[in-house]
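Supplementary notes for students who missed Thursday's class. We covered one full example, reproduced here. Read the sequence, then the structure, then the short commentary at the end.
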Amino acid sequence: MREAIRDGKFVELTYKVTDRKTGHVLTRVEFPLGYVHGHNEILAPSVHAQLEGRSAGDVIEVAIDGSQIFGPRDESLVFTDFIENVPEEYRQVGTSILMENDRGETRSFLVTQVDDEKLTVDGNNPLSGRQVVFVLEILAVRDATDEETKAGGAIPAAGAGVDPARLRPVG
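Structure (token representation):
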């Protein structure tokens, strides 16, 4: 009998998110993502609800209104500047830039457009204002260990962790 996803089960899955209107893949997680169901919500609550009762080998599709999860798009969070005003390391589409406002609040912006003269960044979640479909493939379901339950997910192997070269200072 196959184990079903329920609270306390360790789940490994991969997923992709597609734009319902265009069918374009917006994001894809190809390496197994592990979490403890009911202890660590790594995806939208509506996605977790659809995973309940599923088993390894199942592939499910969950339609999501990105505006309900991330709010509507806010065009005041989209900025365009001359390319010469932007440091070289940020001049590539897809680059994430952590910015701070006058009140010390931080927000991640994504470079969405670059040409010879200008660069555009967007502080909206990429799924804001979109109708999307999560396509999830469940790879494994088993009882979570005590360590995994405490951590809320997979325990990194010794030596694994954050790559300091990928950290950028704020400000």
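Commentary. The mean pLDDT is 86. The longest strand covers residues 131-143. If anything here is unclear, bring it to office hours.
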